[in-house]
Write a structure and sequence with these properties.
Helix content of chain A: 25-40%
Largest interface: A-B, 27 and 27 residues
Pfam family, one (chains A, B, C, D): LamB_YcsF
Largest sheet of chain A: 7 strands, parallel, barrel
Catalytic activity (chains A, B, C, D): 5-oxo-L-proline + ATP + 2 H2O = L-glutamate + ADP + phosphate + H(+)
Shape of chain A: globular
Strand content of chain A: 15-25%
Structural class of chain A: alpha/beta
Function (chains A, B, C, D): Catalyzes the cleavage of 5-oxoproline to form L-glutamate coupled to the hydrolysis of ATP to ADP and inorganic phosphate.
Protein name (chains A, B, C, D): 5-oxoprolinase subunit A
Radius of gyration of chain A: 17 Å
Subunit structure (chains A, B, C, D): Forms a complex composed of PxpA, PxpB and PxpC.
Oligomer: homotetramer
Distance between the termini of chain A: 18 Å
Chain lengths: 256, 256, 256, 256
């Protein structure tokens, strides 16, 4: 039986500033919790961990760049040593809340510019993988399917989860169409659902160029920052269920 | 045989900014490492943990207020909930570096205004003790001898270490003379050494008012931010050794 | 003819985080713009200044504590020298945007804990007044009616604007009922409107104890952070207009 | 008669962290003062402005990226709109201290990664030039000789100051040898002094390839962060004076 994890970023509020919709939680099986660098703060992290445990979703750290002003979305020229230290720090901070609340941390998914940069830069990807392994080798590393993050995770002996996107188009080489291209985003929700079903059932995706290419799909990235996103998540969740696909968090011990 | 721990704050550099003298390390048995709130950053924390392991000193977290500009020394009106979350976060962040480097974290000592406020405020002291216990109940809580921190630590089942000061005078009730009083600081190094010896050997201190009062002394706070402080540490270290006092880190299992 | 200014805090977004309702702008005559310490960032400040100019409302700086996490609402033990420097810095930063956009800055209103502390602490109030005077002596200093801020502003030769609150009750001595008292807030909008009309027309307010006491009312503090607040602002605006009261920004040259 | 300005970055302390040597001040004619983003804080800025006025050196703003952890040296993917707003903000903040102290701000020199990026990126250079012009068109824009910053400054009607380096080698096209090249730095102080004298007297520099190329030299960048740098500054100062070269700050009205 096919199975898939649905993940979304969570816990991205900061101080008085609210971001994110709790309504997404019934439709995802894992959340990536901001750790205070690009978003989140200690109070928010605690509440978010409590909420994740209450909803029974898998908990992951979502480390990002130390750039609250840019929400961790801006490319920064960081060294692998800096990335290593940033990731160790953030995993540890979240792990303490998870432990204090009696939960379990299952995974790590880099955020924003760190995710995108490490997807292509082997040295940064290795810094992330090494940080995860050094803190807890049983953690699963989430990264873009087919990217350097996945390669580095495997090289460091980590279980990995290949992430795919419902609302992004793919190139013939399996990479995402750059956002600068107007065709990068799939606005049509029917198309987005269809793409996910194909990726999960057939392990293939039709590229923008019209070729069906192989893709690994362990987890689908969803958004929880507005109500439309929540409705789409519900719709995708139901479509997957109706196809008989098991929607469940990636298990630590399951593969590889 | 009498024994005493000598501790100092460490790892208080930030980015390009350097603070602290490595030369203090031979004369202390435990270090309190800044965790990125009032000082320290991920790269500094990693290097500091490596250094502490190399020198064989006990490693503690040194959580402070999120006030880099004020070095965590400014009183802030924080709630117990905030303090709890700040302490959990910072212990976790440091713990990850300690684990990655193969070391062991032994203790937690609050920093600056947090230390001073919690020494007198039972609710804040309990928030700290609860945070330590929730993350790792085997950690030793360092706090001002006779303060609310020590009381809260015991109430939460933690091992505690009562901290005394070489260069501060005491009041009849065992509290430190406020810094606003010109007699608060012991400038004469002979006097400072003598005070420590009396505290360690006799478990008593002569108050500013001339009374000998009982004091618990598990650890002495030293400074490592300038060369004179390092020289004083060396002198105190040798004076204690010459008295046959065992200078060693507080042991987790030793008492209580 | 009686006249009154209606002011609200504005420009309190930060990075991706949105706060505040533009819909408040038709119902206020002056805005206090966050300057990047407790809220606001350079892009937000620029857009906010453009918006204020577009709506023809008077522009003021809204300096706060360097505590984004606490939104500048937490008491911090700052020295008058620190407060002076924080206020100079923030006025200057906003002034540059106002100048770049071809507008005029008219006033300064301290934010949050800085406002509350300086209302009672003469040394902090003087630090603020001195900062305003040193940067631009034609700026109007907004502060709690009857407070140390108003006294300090006058002592430093500044024009001042005494601020009153629609939704807060007053004590016999003219101070605000502390928020710890359940009667501190006026939840009934009829009562709130009535209180403002009495303050503006009669320069009196009925204290919680039932006494009519004298109060200066140059400006009323409104909130713009949710839709209910905007509706109340509209209602108050209309009530004042129906009473024939001129609703206009405080003029620099008008008095004193 | 030939004339030259000697400038150095200044006011780069932060909170308890000290950086920079006051001893540099007798040997420079202008300072670039950090504005709180990559370094500096309000108290430091005030003291630095006072010091600059006391020593009679020209005062400039030294805006950088909002990256205290990286000291503004890390490339960040910022938009021209962000750069514009960052520069307006920082100039304004410093201008307020200069005004409060009764001084005059004369120039703006971008810092670190912002300087380097804008030297090559016309859109960022224009954002900086526009920000300077919008806040105060009489300010002089300092930038790398021959760079986009100088071009943009002229295009926006600003007086510019072409900056050269004593301790960096140049390429045939007038650009600096990248730091990745081991020959980028001139370690020999005799060579460094000789290069400056040639640049100032002959308006030429010998490239790493051995060609004498034309270069504009209005100001020389010196360092003030350690004692060796101060000694080199003194030596260069004396060498220039002995050659009869006038060492003086760039004058606003002098050229163009």
């Amino acid at each position: 039986m096919r199975m898939i994890d649905l993940n979304c970023d969570f816990g991205e509020s900061f101080g008085v500033y609210q971001l994110g919709q709790e309504g997404i939680l019934p439709y995802v099986t894992s959340v990536n919790i901001a750790c205070g660098f690009h978003a989140g703060d200690p109070l928010v992290m605690r509440r978010t961990v409590q909420l994740a445990i209450h909803h029974g979703v898998a908990i992951g750290a979502h480390p990002g760049f130390p750039d609250l002003l840019g929400f961790g979305r801006r490319v920064m020229a960081v060294s692998p040593e800096e990335v290593y230290a940033y990731v160790v720090y953030q995993i540890g901070a979240l792990a303490a809340f998870v432990k204090a609340e009696g939960g379990t941390m299952t995974h790590v998914k880099p955020h924003g510019a760190l995710y995108n940069m490490a997807a292509k830069d082997a040295a940064l990807a290795e810094a992330i993988a090494k940080a995860v392994r050094d803190v807890d080798p049983s953690l699963i590393l989430y990264g873009l399917a087919g990217s350097e993050i996945i390669r580095a995770g495997r090289a460091y002996g980590l279980r990995t989860a290949s992430e795919v996107f419902a609302d992004r188009t793919y190139q013939d080489d399996g990479s995402l169409t750059p956002r600068s291209d107007p065709r990068a985003i799939i606005a049509d929700e029917d198309e987005a659902v269809k793409q996910v079903l194909m990726m999960v059932r057939d392990r293939r995706v039709r590229s923008l160029q019209g070729t069906d290419i192989a893709i690994e799909a362990d987890t689908v990235c969803l958004h929880g920052d507005n109500e439309q996103a929540v409705r789409f998540a519900q719709r995708l969740y139901e479509a997957l269920r109706n196809e008989g696909i098991a929607i469940q968090a990636v298990r630590r011990e399951e593969r590889r």
